[in-house]
Amino acid sequence: MNAHPRPDEQQLIQECLAGKQAAQWQLYKKYAKAMYHTVVRMVVQPSDAEDILQDTFVKVFQKLEAFKGESTLGAWIKRIAINTALSHIQKNGRIRFLQVQEQYDLAVPPPSFEASSMDMRSIHQAIKQLPEGCRVVFNLYLLEGYQHQEIAQILHISESTSKSQYQRARRLLQQSLKKNLALSG
Question: Could you tell me the pTM of the whole model?
Answer without folding.
Answer: 0.75
